[in-house]
Every structure is written in structure tokens, then in C-alpha cells.
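User: Can you model how adenosine-5'-triphosphate sits in this protein?
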Amino acid sequence: MSKNIQAIRGMNDCLPSQTPVWQKVESVLRNVVASYGYSEIRMPVVEATELFKRSIGEVTDIVEKEMYTFDDRNGDSLTLRPEGTASCVRAGNQHGLLYNQTQRLWYMGPMFRHERPQKGRYRQFHQFGVETFGLNGPDIDAEVIAMTARFWQAFGIADKVTLEINSLGNSEDRAAHREALVSFLQANQDKLDEDCLRRMETNPLRVLDSKNPDVQAMLVDAPRLPDYLSEESAEHFAQLRARLDALGIQYRVNERLVRGLDYYNKTVFEWVTDCLGAQGTVCAGGRYDGLVAELGGKATPAVGFAMGLERLVLILETLGLTEDIRGAVDAYIVVAGQQAELQAPVFADALRDAMPDCRIQLHCGGGNFKKQFKKADQSGAQVALILGDDEVANKQVTVKYLRGQKQQTTISIDSVAAELANEFQR
Ligand code: ATP
Ligand code: MG
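Assistant: Here's the modeled complex, given as C-alpha cells:
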């Protein structure tokens, strides 16, 4: 026998038993963004490598070590997208969506990063993201954060996630802070690990992001970002906080929150949870006013976020919130007898017309009642609808309730829809 071919490590199948949860999650997210009047954008999963190098930054974890990059047959360097923002900006520039306009967009789809696979960290994972363009005030920052807060409410996990926010200031603020930070780090070089020493040269702000506890202890006395914010940046941040306060959205200001990508300025935020162990960030984003111009467009302010769907699904599963999610089938039609076999598909279609939201599976493949009821049970259906030749002759259907105690009953074929509607409402 030939050897089975396996999926690539860290790239998961989503099996039929799991897809109902994913569909539910996706539909809740779609409904929330729709309720804010956002439009969907779909981008290719492969882009020119240069796009990610230029936007995410050469000295970031993603570009340094996580990208799936290859030469295509023409010798062009292509990369499986590690995130959506760069592609979204590229598409916006290319199609003239950004110049002198405002856009409120969302996207959803697979992203690829060559990381060490573990719980909550995969090589193909899925993000739901939002990007807004053309708005520079704190009102839109507050809106996108408030929208994420509504996601948690909709999923019933608002008390399991906490919001951290920070302001990185504008590029001049950052430059001034950077200079002071580098001096400080140079004076404390002996306490820096190899990674931080490298970052000190290339991207000093990211030293603040270090997970090394010794480094973190030393950073207590480091120059603080808030002390370097211009009046305008500080005001922007204060206004954002006032709006979050007015909305009753709680947050913690985390002065060390800098995010791993280069393109952020002013507002940055993360939603974190302690349900998932080390992979605690479910959603992260911020403002990136320089990126559109960096990628060749006209200067356009922007703010957005991306959420990791695997992590969201894991939270819901950990909390037991996925158990009630309906499977693929609501009603399963069991068939016995020649007349019944002819009439069952007609009955099924009439029921589908009468109940567009009801998922009706018709038994195929014959077999006795025992076999058919086993299939009905495995399908996850709430009810089996039994159509035998007697039922066909009398224009009746027998309804067997597969969950709960209710007695089976034989009713007129015309009242099946009403009976099911009643049953599914409970
Ligand atoms: P982390 O610090 O966990 O590596 P990140 O800063 O690299 O996250 P972002 O680039 O901000 O992550 O991506 C936004 C979100 O996408 C993350 O908060 C997370 O929920 C999710 N995410 C990122 N990388 C992965 C991955 N390899 N597997 C699963 N989800 C991921
Ligand atoms: Mg990462």
C-alpha cells in the first residue's frame, strides 16, 4: 500500500464536525461589521515579497523569519501573505479607493507564517480584519475598538478578554523617544540579551516588547513613550480614552505596548485573554498613517485591527460555548417502501420551500429502519420524519423526536412544517 500523504505541519483541516462552529463565528463577525456599515474586500493570498518587506518592516519577526517566500516560474519573488493590512493597502492604492476618500473595510481569510506550531499558533491560520482609511481623528480609533468590544459581547466572552491601549505618537515623537531609548539601552547593554542587542541597532522600540523578565526589569527606568508625545498626539490619545470611557469600554494603558510591525503610529491596542496560555492575544491593531504613502499612495490616515480566528474559536471551546451550536442537519427523512421512495424527495422539497432555514437531509442508500435511525441520530438532527407506504397512502408523516422525551406522533403531511417550526422554536 502506498503511504498516506499528510497535511503540512501547522496547516490544519477544518473537519465537518468543526465547521459549524467556524460558520457561526464567521457569521457573528460579519453581522457585527455589517451593523457598522463596513464593506468586505477580498485580496489574493499571494503577493510580491517586496510588499511585505516594505510595509511590515525588514527587521520584524514576520519578515526576518516567518514568511513563506518562493520564486515562481518567472523568477519573481512571491510570498504567501502573512497578514492582510499590506495587501489591503496595496489593493486600495491600485484601484484608487483611498485617495481623497474614506473607506471602512473588512476581510477574512487564511494567513501564513512559518512559526513553531503549538496551541493557538499555526502556520496557516485565519484572520478577520478591519481597515479604515481617510480618517485621522480619535473618533474612528474609538469606533474600531468599540466594534471589537461588540464582538466579545456577541460571543458572550466580554469578561474573558481585556483591552490594552497605548500611543506611539507620530514619527517625530517616536524619533525623539528612539534617540533617548538608544542612549539608555547602550548604557545598559550588559543587561540585554542577544535578541535585544540586535533590536537596539535595528528597531529599538521593539526592545520594550521583550519577553525576557531581566530585560523588562531593567526597562523600568527606560525613557517612557508618554513623555515624548507631542501635544497633538497626547490630545488624540486623551480623546480616544474619553470616547472609550463614554462607551463604558474598560482598558489598561500599557506604556510598553508597541506591536511587532513597523507601520504603527499613535494608537495601538491589543485584546488579551488568560484562557489560552502563552498565545494570549486574540486581536491586535492600531493606527498606521504612514503606510499608504510608504506603499506609493497619497498620504492617507488609517486605522485597523486583525483578529486570530483559531484563538477565538479556542476561547469559545475552552468556555464550553460551542456545545449548543447547531450541526448541519435539523430534520432527517427516513424512507420505507416503493411509494415512499418516490414521494420522499417531493415531500422533502416541499418542506424546504416551506421552511427555508430548516436543513433537511433525505436518507439515501436504503436499509432497514434501524440503520436509518442510526444515520438520523448521527446526522445530529432534532427530528426524524418517517415516510412509509402507509403514511404516503394516508398523506401523513410520522415525527420521531430524537432528542428529549416527546412521544412520536403521526400527523397530516400539511402540518409537518408547522410542527417543526414549533419544535425548533423551543
Ligand atoms: P503573537 O504575538 O501571538 O505572535 P502577532 O503580534 O504576531 O501575535 P499580529 O501580526 O498582530 O500577531 O496578528 C493579529 C492576530 O492574529 C494575533 O493577535 C493572533 O490572534 C493571530 N495570530 C498571529 N499569528 C498567528 C499564528 N501563527 N497562529 C494563529 N494565530 C495567529
Ligand atoms: Mg507573531
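A couple of observations from the model: The chain has a mean pLDDT of 95. The first helix runs from residue 19 to 35.
User: Helpful, thanks.
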